[in-house]
Amino acid sequence: MCGIVAYIGPKEAYPVVLKGLKRLEYRGYDSSGVALLNNGLKVYKKKGKVADLEESLVGKDVHAHIGIGHTRWATHGEPSDRNAHPHTSSNGKMAMIHNGIIENYSQLKNELLKKGYVFESDTDTEVLLKFIEDIQLNNECGLEEAVRIALKRVVGAYVIVLIDQDHPDTLIAARKGSPLVIGIGKGEHFLASDATPIIEYTKEVVYVNDYELAIIRPGELVLKNLGNEKITPFVQKLDLELAAIEKSGYDHFMLKEIFEQPQTIFDCLRGRLDANAGAITMAGVQNNIDQLKNASRIIIVACGTSWHAGLLAEYIFEELCRIPVEVEYASEFRYRNPVVHKGDVIIAVSQSGETADTLVAIEKAKEQGALIFGVVNAVGSSIARVSNAGAYTHAGPEIGVASTKAFTAQLVVLTLIALKVAHEKKTIDTSRFMHLLSELHEIPEKVELTLRSAPKVKALAEKYRDARDFLYLGRGYNFPIALEGALKLKEISYIHAEGYPAAEMKHGPIALVDEHLPVVFVATRDSYHEKIVSNIQEIKARKGKVIAVISEGDENISRMADDTIEVPEADELVAPILSVVPLQLLAYYIGVAKDLDVDKPRNLAKSVTVE
Ligand code: F6R
C-alpha cells in the first residue's frame, strides 16, 4: 500500500518522481504529493490520482535535483489534501513520505501534544516526522542520528524517506516491513517501492533490508544498521524490461495481463517441464525433496486471490501427494496460536511478495521450525527472501490491481510442485504423471483458444451489467474458481457476488435465487459433472439466470443454461486454469461497461503492506 519514489542527482527530480508515481499508482491512489528541495523546501499535494496532482502543478516552480513523492492508500485519516504525503516538520524545513503503519503513533502523538506540537493532519506519518524533529532538538543531534533513535522506539512497519532543507544534498531512507529498492545510476540514485520506476534509468539495484538506513548523496550510497554500523550494499541486476510494465496498446493493464496468460504460463513452464522426458526440473523443490516428501502436513498461507490458488492447491496436493493440507488466511494464522511442527511445510503464495500478513505469518512459522516454501511472483521481494526455498511464478510485473496472470501462474507452479513431490513419493502412477505433464504442456495453447471467447463474454457483460448480485458456483477443483470469479467481479464492477460450492447452495444461498439473479456455474466436464448438472436444474427450476462455463461441445448444459462460454477439454486437475479466464474477462468487461476504472478499483491497492 502506498507507493514512494525519490530521486537525487543531476536530472530534474520532478519528472522522474512524477513518472515513478504513475508507475506505482497501483499501490494506492487516494492522494499524491511531492516535495522538492531547491533554495528551500516546496511541498505540493492533492487528493485524487497522480494526474490530478500533475494538473495542479502546471505552471508551478518544480525545478529541483532532489525530490520525494508519494501516492497514498489511506490508513490513518481520510483521503484529503491535508492527509496527503509528504508531511512537513513544525519548522517547515523537513519533508517525509511513509509507506506502512506506525502502530504506537497515538502514544507518540500524546507525548508530542504535551510538548506543544500541533498537527496538521490525522496521519501517523506526521507524528513520526515530528517525533524525529523533537529528538533532533532535544539531543542536539543530526538528522541521521535522530532517525535512528526514533526508529528504535517505533512499533510497526515503514519505509520512510526524508529531505531537509538544511542538508540539501542528502536523502535519508529507512525500512522495516515495507519494500524499498534503490537504483544506482551514474552520479544519481532512485528510490522506490518496487523497481518499476527505476528500470528505465538503471538496472543496478539494492534491495534495502529491514532495520537498515540509507544515507544518499549525489553519487554516494551509505547503508547502515540501526546500531550505526556500515553495511556493504548488495548490488543486483534487474531482470525486467520496460515493455513489461507498459500497456502495449491495450486499454487497460488488466486486459493486457489477461491476454498475456498464454505467454506467462509458457514462461512459467519453460525450463521446468519436459513432457516428453517425463521430467520436472525445479531446484527449490529438488533441494528440499526429503522435507517435502515426508512433510507431516502442508500449510498454505496467503490472502485474496493467492488464497484461492492455495485452496485449489489443497485439492491437488491431497489428491496427488496424499499429504494433509490446510489453507489459511495469513491474517488469521498470524494472530491465532497455530500448531506448527518441525516436520510441517509452509507454502506462502503471494504475487507481490510484500503482503504484510503473509510475511508475518511465515516469519512466525519459521520461528517454530517449519520449512517455508515461497511461491512468489515479484523477484527479490520480502516473502521470497524470508522463505527457505521457493519457486517464482515468472508472470512478469502485474500492474492491474485485480490479479489475473499471477493467479494462473500460481496454479501452474503449485501443480508442478505437487506433481514433482507425488512422483518422487510414488503416490502417482507413471501413466497419470505422464498424462498430466502433457496436459500442462498444452495449457498455454488452450488458454489462447479460451481467449477467443472474449467477444462473446463482452456481449454477456452488456447483458448482465445491471444485475445487483451474482452467485458463482463450482464443485471440486472448480470451487476455488467460483470464489475467484466472484472476487474479480466484486473488485472490478462493484457488484455484490458470492462464490459457493455448488452443493452448499441448498443450505442457504438458494433463497436468493429469482429471475433477476445471474448464477455463474463453473461446469467443465469432471468427476462431479452429473452433480453440477443437477445443481443447474435446481437454479433453472427457480427461474435463476444461468451462465455456464462449460467444456467445448457440452450440449446438455447448453440446452439448459441461458448462456454458455466454452473452454477446451482438459483434465479436471488443470481445467481450472482455463475456466478462470472467461470469469476474468466477464469481470473486466462488466467494469468497462459500467465505465469504471478497472485498473484502479476504488478503495483497493495492489500490494497490501499493512495488516
Ligand atoms: C485480488 C487481489 C488480492 C491479492 C491479495 C494478496 O485480485 O489481487 O486479493 O491476491 O491482496 O496479494 P499477494 O498475492 O500480493 O500476496
Q: Can you list the strand order of the major beta sheet?
A: 3-2-4-1-10-9-11-15
Question: Structurally, how many domains make up the residues?
Answer: 3
- Average pLDDT, to the nearest integer? 94
Proportion of helical residues: 25-40%
CATH superfamily of the largest domain: Aminohydrolase, N-terminal nucleophile (Ntn) domain
User: For this structure, what is the CATH class of the largest domain?
Assistant: Alpha Beta
Quick one: how many beta strands? Answer: 27
- Helix count equals 20
- Taking Cα atoms only, what radius of gyration do you get, to the nearest Å? 25 Å
Give me the CATH fold name of the largest domain: Glutamine Phosphoribosylpyrophosphate, subunit 1, domain 1
Distance between the terminal alpha carbons, to the nearest Å? 10 Å
Explain how this protein is built.
With 611 residues, this protein is of the alpha/beta class. Helices cover 37% and strands 24% of the residues. The strands form five sheets. Strands 3-2-4-1-10-9-11-15 form an eight-stranded antiparallel sheet, covered by helices on one side. The longest helix is centred in the C-terminal third of the chain and has 21 residues, at 405-425. It is globular and about 80 Å long. The protein starts with a strand and ends in an 18-residue tail after the last helix. The relative contact order is 0.09. The structure holds fructose -6-phosphate (F6R). Fructose -6-phosphate is lined by residues 303-306, 350-352, 355, 358, 402-403, 487, 491, 607-608. Fructose -6-phosphate (F6R) binds at residues 303-306, 350-352, 355, 358, 402-403, 487, 491, 607-608.
